[in-house]
Amino acid sequence: MSLQIRAATPADAPELAAWNMAMAWETERKRLESATLERGVRGVFEQPRRGFYLVAEHDGAAVGCLLVTYEWSDWRNGDFWWIQSVYVVPAARRVGAFRALYAEVARRAAAAGAVGLRLYVETENGRAQATYEGLGMQRCHYFMYEAPLAVPVL
What we know:
Shape: globular
Strand content: 25-35%
Protein name: GCN5 family acetyltransferase
Keywords: Acyltransferase, Transferase
Number of helices: 4
Radius of gyration: 16 Å
Oligomer: single chain
Distance between the termini: 42 Å
GO molecular function: acyltransferase activity, transferring groups other than amino-acyl groups
Strand order of the largest sheet: 1-2-3-4-5
Organism: Rhodanobacter thiooxydans
Largest sheet: 5 strands, mixed
Mean pLDDT: 93
InterPro entries: Acyl_CoA_acyltransferase, Bact_Acetyltransf, GNAT_dom
Helix content: 25-40%
Low-confidence stretches: none
CATH architecture: 3-Layer(aba) Sandwich
Order of helices and strands: EHHEEEHEH
């Protein structure tokens, strides 16, 4: 499969939101609130400091995406780039779409002086874990904790 990777634009927002909705359902059986999700996707384009999306295309048709966000590391005096919101349409899975997206993130991160790449994965998602390990990523020794806060509805 011949793939091209490009930066997403605001015109991609509806598809990015739909893919996020599908990813949340497939990985966590979680239904996201569409208006909140749509505002969240648009928020990345409105404030580039939040990150950026990349889109994989095959023959001009978008087949996958991911979001990159940043985390400052005072220990390393640099940014980690977090890979999030990964989605590849079922017909394009296992043919290199994520590999191509990952390669572009790694290229951009190295050029920007990032100190590393990170992502999180569901503990039961063995296929994704094998993919990430196949790309040279290693499991960290950290557990992830969170404390959801009430978010005002806008």
